[in-house]
């Protein structure tokens, strides 16, 4: 019984943390301002910035969001090590398109970028290599999150 209660508490806590940690994609958001805020938080908390590029129109973006939200272990890893930044993918002269011009072009969506606390690009990661069937591979995603976290 104690294990069941503990597991329930862990899942509930992770779900709350991750829902707070992973913002929705917002076409109307200012990515320059969002990155400035992410840099402040990352520097203060000793974290990296994990930038998701995609949108709610992207099937695999939705699958990745749900995959991360529904796995308590990954939710804790994400919250502990990263400030999450979501960028609505656009390639034109919108603020999002201009913001993305300074990063390597993604091959598909979602695409992940790991940035230092100063906003410097460390990793550009395709997500198809993290997939398994019609979802994502927990071992690969966990390895990615651990490998790219700040070494403490």
Bin the helical content.
Answer: 40-55%
Find the count of extended strands (DSSP E, 2+ residues): 6
Shape descriptor reads globular
Using the 3D structure, state the CATH architecture: 3-Layer(aba) Sandwich
Q: In summary, what is this structure?
A:
This protein has 152 residues and is of the alpha+beta class. Helices cover 47% and strands 19% of the residues.
Commentary on this structure:
The chain is 47% helix and 19% strand. A hairpin with a 2-residue loop joins strand 5 and strand 6 (135-136). The longest helix has 20 residues, at 2-21. Helix 1 crosses helix 4. The chain has 152 residues and is of the alpha+beta class. It has a single domain, classed as Glutaredoxin, CATH 3.40.30.10. The chain is globular, with a radius of gyration of 15 Å. It has six helices and six strands; from the N terminus they run ααβααβαββββα. The strands form two sheets. Strands 2-1-3-4 form a four-stranded mixed β-sheet. The model is unreliable at 10-20 (pLDDT under 50).
Helix and strand arrangement:
Elements: H1 2-21, H2 31-45, E1 48-54, H3 59-69, H4 72-81, E2 82-88, H5 95-100, E3 111-115, E4 121-126, E5 131-132, E6 135-136, H6 138-147
Parallel strand pairs: 1-2
Antiparallel strand pairs: 1-3, 3-4, 5-6
Give structural attributes.
single chain, 152 residues, alpha+beta, Glutaredoxin, 6 helices, 6 strands
């Amino acid at each position: 019984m104690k294990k069941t209660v503990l597991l329930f508490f862990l899942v509930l806590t992770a779900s709350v943390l991750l829902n707070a940690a992973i913002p929705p994609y917002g076409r109307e958001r200012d990515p320059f301002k969002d990155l400035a805020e992410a840099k402040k938080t990352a520097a203060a908390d000793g974290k990296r910035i994990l930038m998701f590029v995609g949108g709610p129109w992207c099937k695999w973006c939705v699958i990745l969001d749900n995959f991360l939200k529904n796995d308590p272990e990954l939710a804790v890893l994400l919250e502990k090590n990263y400030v999450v930044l979501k960028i609505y993918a656009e390639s034109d002269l919108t603020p999002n398109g201009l913001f993305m011009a300074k990063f390597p072009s993604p091959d598909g969506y979602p695409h992940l970028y790991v940035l230092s606390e100063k906003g410097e690009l460390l990793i550009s990661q395709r997500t198809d290599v993290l997939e398994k069937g019609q979802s994502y591979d927990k071992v690969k995603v966990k390895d990615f999150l651990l490998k790219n976290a700040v070494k403490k």
